[in-house]
Amino acid sequence: MALAQTSFFSDVLGLSCTMNVILPQQTKRQIGLEGKAAAGRFPVLYLLHGLSDDHSIWLRRTSIERYAAEYGLAVVMPAVARSCYTDMKVGHRYWTFVSEELPEIAGALFPLSDRREDTFAAGLSMGGYGAFKLGLSCPDRFAAVASLSGGLDIRSRFERGQVMPLAETESIFGKKEEAVGGPNDLFALADKLAGLPAEQQPLLYQCCGTEDFLYDENIAFRDHARSLGLPLTYEEGPGEHEWGYWDAQIRRALEWLPLRKL
After folding, report:
1. What pTM did the predictor assign?
2. I need a labelling partner for 226 at 20 to 30 A (CA). Which of 13, 15, 60, 127 fits?
3. Which of 17, 153, 127, 151 is nearest to 62 (CA)?
């Protein structure tokens, strides 16, 4: 695998940005990791970070490079600050950036496939919310998306105050009455997705540790998705909101993706 640490300019955000990109590389003499790469443009996973992290965190806390190597999978890891992957009420248009501009820039710089069947997203916590938002909002572009311990219910952001202060929540989503039921509400997006034919719905993978403080809202989203008949795979087990759990689960998520090992 090759690692590209990339700085680039975003017209949408009006500022310089960073992303880490893992790329399959065919090698013969690499010790400890077999270099595999299929011909043509690579399938791609957009791997999203959590609230307190940045584009470097997946490489620092997990073995994502080693896991992705088995599949010849490119992994794009952008930085989006504390934006909740949203066009913020007061702030930058990070949703437009990650859903529209980032794939265009990454695809222009690297040999990434733009076919739906080769395009996936995953993330943890805030990034789990972002990954599901990509799949539910852009089902024509994502074949499968995965949420690890996702913050999936924006209603809880207004009620609990334990993830971020209410003032910060409102600077991102606006007031609760305008946020709930809108384009940032995964429950409302799931309702819309259910109206599409089954073959047009992306596959959903959701997991959460039973000791995680976000467990209740994960159960709420799981039950809602199941009531709609969405193609959801749900797994739970012992675990808190921590990297040991996510390192194990991102490997499980890669195994679940509709990819083949090379």
Report:
1. 0.97
2. 127
3. 127
